[in-house]
Design goal:
With 360 residues, the protein is α/β, with parallel strands linked by helices. The protein is built from twelve helices and eight strands. The two termini are 26 Å apart. 50% of the residues are buried. Bound molecules: zinc ion. Zinc ion (ZN) binds next to strand 5.
């Protein structure tokens, strides 16, 4: 059996090939949804891939999602491939199935971006686009959040404005203003998009095709970038006291934190995958959590996102800043070290074990 860290890929293409190979080694078919408009950083096509373990018409399912935030897919993909290599295909109890969704946002994964081809954050993209939510705090800070250039002077002036806001309202309010989601600054960060993205439509298609008829669903969406380095939270949007929260608490114990109740490292968010899935599963039993693992400081992650945002709006891959900024954002969401991989692998394996025990 290979060491855990070997399950973690070096890029999207390798991740996809490893996932498909691991599925095929277990006699699992893979369904590939081709992105109709975009290619990867290597010039080749992009796909959202799914593999299903167990009975296709099972009424109880576990769904594991990677790459909602593109570059965060190194983690989720490594976990999916590793679990397949370590016997996940033998672990679906009778009457249950396990659906692995690989690279919900393959563009972001391939280009080392958190967002998709339209600068949209897939985990804010399930909003009502006829009447998108307002984020007045973001509006106020928009020109300080997104950088007009990469010079130290611009960064300094922008940070002074953000610091003044943080001094007045607190650091968590600043984080909320920035990251809760916004729909009026397409050139900004945490932009929820102006329309349903391809990833949005494909996720809905996976629910129609692979999860049709499921009455009880546990879903884990793998994320990185928030919290202490190598630490983990199972983030739920359900409130303490609700049945879904109680089920999640029984499964994941102290790791469970509600973003809606202010328990989590994440503020409450708009237009999330969680909210979309809850809508599609209405009247049926859903337990959803984002497994969020920490990488670097909030400031490092934020600054990497700002520079990457500037880069993709203003530069091309031959730009002198390109390689440095791309390395910075990759590092911000994927600390490529054995220690980190072991730590986050253990969190993920534990979360999946608990979910499998709950549906067995
Ligand atoms: Zn994320």
């Amino acid at each position: 059996m290979p060491a855990i860290e070997q399950y973690f890929p070096h890029d999207y293409r390798e991740a996809r090939h490893a996932f498909i190979a691991a599925a095929e080694a277990n006699d699992l078919g893979v369904t590939s949804r081709l992105h109709p408009a975009e290619n990867g950083a290597d010039g080749k096509p992009l796909f959202l891939d799914t593999a299903t373990i167990g009975e296709r018409d099972a009424k109880t399912a576990l769904l594991l999602i990677s790459g909602t935030h593109g570059v965060e897919g190194y983690f989720g993909s490594g976990v999916q491939t590793g679990l397949l290599r370590e016997g996940l295909a033998q672990r679906a109890a009778k009457g249950t199935k396990i659906v692995l969704l690989h690279a919900l946002n393959p563009f972001g994964f391939s280009w080392d971006r958190r967002v998709n081809e339209d600068n949209a954050d897939i985990n804010r993209n399930f909003a009502d686009f006829a009447n998108p939510p307002r984020n007045p705090a973001y509006d106020e800070l928009a020109d300080a959040i997104a950088l007009s250039d990469l010079s130290p002077g611009t960064m300094k002036a922008a940070n002074a404005k953000l610091r003044a806001y943080s001094d007045k309202y607190g650091a968590f309010k600043l984080q909320e203003a920035i990251s809760t989601g916004q729909y009026h600054h397409p050139g900004g960060i945490y932009f929820g998009g102006a329309r349903e993205s391809w990833s949005h439509r494909m996720l809905q298609d996976v629910f129609r095709e692979e999860l049709k008829g499921v009455k009880t669903l546990i879903a884990i969406d793998f994320h990185t970038g928030l919290g202490e380095h190598g630490a983990a939270e199972m983030i739920t949007e359900d409130l303490p006291g609700s049945a879904a929260y109680k089920r999640a608490k029984t499964m994941w114990g102290d790791a469970l934190q509600s973003s809606e109740a202010g328990e989590s490292v994440s503020p409450p968010l708009q237009g999330t995958v969680d909210k979309a899935v809850a809508h599609w599963m209405k009247g049926r039993e859903l337990t959803f959590a984002a497994l969020e693992v920490g990488t670097r400081s909030t400031r490092d992650v934020f600054n990497a996102l700002r520079r990457d945002n500037w880069l993709h709006l203003n530069a091309k891959p031959n730009d002198p800043d390109w390689a440095r900024v791309k390395q910075e954002i990759r590092d911000a969401f994927y600390p490529d070290t054995a220690d980190w991989k072991h730590s986050v692998w253990n969190h993920a394996a534990k979360a999946v074990d608990a979910a499998l025990a709950a549906i067995a």
